[in-house]
């Protein structure tokens, strides 16, 4: 055989073998193996760059983001709905990256949006009846899961769809239960991959960890039907709504400003731990034992409302970084996946109020700057050669910590010991 032909055939064999090995790993990787695995960090993701969702991120932009997240050791991302093309394009982008780079791994917790009849309209919402759009959303989630079984490992039925403060769209648990049971039946009928896990991602109270008004039989049946519980915990919001942990204790008055803030953030972390434990406790009280993971938690860096300088003084990059690190430390050491909210700032969420907190939960801002929580990764050249919108990832505040601290405010509320 001609030596040149032999070398070409050998290279083709190696390439095919690498692809086969990669595909085998992707197919064998399951939600059960992913969740709670410290080597597969999780995050919530949306790739929108402008003030309207009409401007959807391109495949190239989605691939740009996936490379950045992969460099951060993120291996599983959570999406929220499939009624925009972002979800389908994201799966296509990941698939293309897997073909381009043999060792690239990224998995998806695919969200199907659920809401009630008359949600987001001028008519009164009917919470025990569902929107006709839900069935379409579920069908598209099924289609995408079957098209990309090597990537989609979890389907989440609804996002904060049962919590009653979501007054414009929440549904009663029987509606979520209906769709979870439907997806579980498709698994049994081999119409969905058997290893895909089904859940709903909701506030800790919706999972029984709060008020007794949520403790209904349909919730109990839902807990029995899901493969695991995906719960949300947001101490940042409760720095205003329930600030039992937010402030300075009498014995902390003599500490430095940094020490006082650090103590407050540790109490915020403990507040999340208590909410997690309350869900586990309720689950066990109805005779169920299954995994519980954090589907969402986060801490905004800017707010001109309830959580900012005129409110609880909770939002800045230092506090956000401390909360991020504390939550990662706790969940990693406890075998809990934490889908941190969120990877990148998105300013469509409160487009009329640029300084609103909803626009500022990202770890990286819209100027391609890593916030304080990720400054160490910039120092380590983690993002070397990577760009977002053509810009390299740099540090906020030009990396000047003194400038950052000028925007840090200490909580003024005095807590009783």
Order of helices and strands: HHEHEHEEEHEHEHEHEHEHEEHEEEHE
Shape type: globular
Uncertain spans: none
Strand order of the largest sheet: 1-2-3-6-7-8-10-11
* Structure classification: alpha/beta
How many strands?
A: 16
- Note the gap between the termini: 83 Å
Strand portion: 5-15%
Specify the helix fraction band.
Answer: 25-40%
Radius of gyration: 22 Å
Main sheet makeup: 8 strands, parallel
**Mean pLDDT score:** 94
Number of helices: 12
Describe the structure.
With 417 residues, this protein is an alpha/beta fold. 39% of the residues lie in helices and 15% in strands. The chain contains 12 helices and 16 strands. The protein has an 8-stranded parallel β-sheet. Strands 4-5 form a two-stranded antiparallel ribbon. A two-stranded parallel sheet has the order 9-16. Strand 10, helix 10 and strand 11 form a beta-alpha-beta unit. Helix 3 packs across helix 4, helix 6 packs parallel to helix 7 and helix 9 packs across helix 10.
Secondary-structure blueprint of this entry?
Elements: H1 3-28, H2 31-34, E1 41-44, H3 59-71, E2 74-78, H4 86-100, E3 107-112, E4 116-117, E5 126-130, H5 133-147, E6 152-159, H6 173-188, E7 197-203, H7 217-225, E8 229-232, H8 235-241, E9 248-249, H9 257-285, E10 292-297, H10 317-334, E11 338-340, E12 369-370, H11 375-379, E13 387-388, E14 391-392, E15 394-395, H12 401-405, E16 414-415
Parallel strand pairs: 1-2, 2-3, 3-6, 6-7, 7-8, 8-10, 9-16, 10-11, 12-15
Antiparallel strand pairs: 4-5, 13-14
């Amino acid at each position: 055989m001609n030596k040149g032909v032999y070398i070409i055939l050998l290279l083709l064999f190696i390439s095919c073998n690498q692809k086969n090995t990669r595909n085998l790993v992707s197919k064998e990787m399951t939600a059960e193996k992913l969740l709670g695995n410290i080597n597969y960090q999780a995050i919530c993701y949306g790739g929108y760059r402008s003030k309207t969702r009409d401007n959807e991120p391109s495949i190239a932009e989605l691939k740009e983001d996936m490379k950045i997240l992969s460099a951060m050791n993120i291996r599983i991302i959570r999406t929220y709905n499939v009624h925009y093309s972002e979800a389908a394009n994201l799966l296509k982008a990941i698939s293309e990256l897997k073909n381009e780079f043999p060792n690239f791994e990224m998995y998806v917790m695919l969200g199907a949006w659920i809401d009630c009849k008359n949600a987001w309209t001028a008519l009164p919402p009917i919470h025990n009846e569902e929107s006709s759009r839900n069935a379409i959303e579920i069908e598209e989630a099924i289609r995408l899961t079957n098209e990309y079984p090597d990537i989609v490992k979890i389907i989440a039925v609804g996002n904060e769809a049962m919590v009653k403060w979501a007054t414009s769209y929440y549904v009663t648990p029987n509606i979520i239960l209906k769709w979870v049971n439907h997806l579980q039946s498709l698994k049994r009928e081999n119409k969905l991959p058997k290893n895909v896990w089904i859940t709903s991602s909701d506030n800790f109270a919706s999972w029984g960890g709060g008020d007794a008004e949520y403790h209904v039989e349909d919730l109990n049946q839902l807990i029995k039907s899901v493969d695991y519980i995906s719960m949300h915990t947001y101490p940042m919001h409760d720095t205003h709504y329930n600030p039992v942990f937010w402030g300075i204790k009498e014995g902390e008055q003599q500490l430095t400003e940094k020490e006082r803030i650090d103590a407050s953030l540790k109490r915020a972390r403990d507040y999340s731990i208590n909410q997690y434990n309350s869900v586990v406790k309720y689950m066990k009280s109805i005779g169920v034992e299954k995994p519980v993971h954090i589907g969402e938690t986060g801490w905004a860096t800017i707010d001109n409302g309830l959580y900012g300088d005129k409110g609880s003084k909770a939002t800045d990059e230092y506090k956000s970084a401390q909360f991020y690190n504390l939550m990662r430390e706790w969940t990693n050491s406890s075998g809990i996946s934490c889908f941190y909210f969120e990877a990148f700032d998105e300013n469509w969420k409160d487009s009329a109020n640029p300084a609103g907190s909803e626009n500022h939960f990202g770890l990286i801002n819209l100027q391609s700057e890593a916030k304080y929580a990720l400054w160490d990764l910039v120092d380590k050249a983690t993002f070397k050669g990577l760009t977002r919108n053509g810009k390299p990832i740099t540090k906020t505040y030009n990396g000047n910590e003194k400038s950052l601290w000028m925007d840090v405010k200490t909580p003024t509320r005095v807590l009783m010991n």
